[in-house]
Amino acid sequence: MMIEFKDFGFEDNERYLEYLKRCIQIPSNASPMMVLAAKKKYNVQRAYVDNLCWQKFSVGDSEFWAAPVGEWDEINWQKIFARHVPAGTVFNFVPEYLVKLWQRELGAAIEVSEDRDFWDYILYLDRMENLEGKKLKSIRQGRNVFEKNYEYEVEELSPKIFDELREFQAVAEKDLQSRVENVESAQDDNSDFLFALNHWDELKNLFGFVVRVDGKIVAYCLDEQIDETHSIAPFAKADYNFVGANQFAYWYDAKINLERGILTQNIMDDVGEENLRFFKEHLCPLVMLKKFLVTYAPVEKIRDVKISSVRNENNLTLKISGKLNTDSANSAKDEILSALDGVNKLTLDLNGLEYISSSGLRILIAALKKLRAQGGTMTVKNVGVQVREVLEMTGFAEIFNLGWRPNI
Fold first, then answer.
1. Could you tell me the pTM of the whole model?
2. Across 116-120, 175-179, 270-274, which has the greatest mean pLDDT?
3. pLDDT computed for residue 145 by the predictor
4. What are the chain's domains?
5. Which of 336, 350, 340, 360 shows the shortest CA–CA distance to 406?
């Protein structure tokens, strides 16, 4: 059964966030704010199916899915993929934990490639606030230089300073784009930042601060709280004319997160920018949240049977072709029976089914029994000569009421 993706808006944030909180790893690109910011540009659609939230993106003629969010360890991934995920589906930014689950349960049905430029940096905020040890020396020195050289003040982010912050962002963004190779990514980042300011009240979970010197903004951080102990830091900028402003802002950001009870934080990917990667590695991340590109390439590789479905309310047509032998029957049984939930009338179209084994016959009987238990009926049509011979020899032709004219 294909997933029916639909449009969504700010009113869906609370529900989506509940699913996101269940994930053992939360990638920055799955944040409610980031998804909403990307919605128009990438035609993002969403669906809630089988205890998971699914999201689909479009880029030109290409389509890709985000990693579904929910309690991953409680999902039967073989059943879910067979039922809902079309062959050839590409998943972007899949966290390492979920990839390991998929590799264990789906095996050769998925192809995985590493996407290093989009890994998140996970900070342990106690470490960032204390800045102890050799690894954090450069951050500590930068903060100390800033505190020593400048009379500064820190102000909480609020809509009353957003016009001023937009002006600072425009200058900082122009400077950034002159220093990076991936200009398109920087432009996307700027667009997402402006989206966050423009929808501050609707997004609800955002917080942050600006740093001022002589009344002028010289740095800011904007964060999104995901749950009681974790946040994502999608945006931070500093005026590099003020030495140490960047290091001070990251230190102070850890401080205000800890005051809210937050222990860990995603610092977003470096998009392959060498200087950005160098700086983020010096934040001494607790761990890297690795993300991967995953392609689902199932049916032809793992079984000989093909199954497609068309459903109209409580009426379902299942088309079965290929060979329903012992191996393919084992993988097809759950897919067929789960598709019958809530069905009153089933039509089995066997046009193209070349062979059926005893295991395949047991699936058809199981389907018939389930339909009868639900008060429904089953019709079998377009049965080829070889399959009909098997059904007639075993007596199933009469049970399925095939009649006596073979489909030649």
1. 0.72
2. 116-120
3. 98
4. 10-118+293-299 (3.40.630.30), 120-286 (3.40.630.30), 303-399 (3.30.750.24)
5. 350
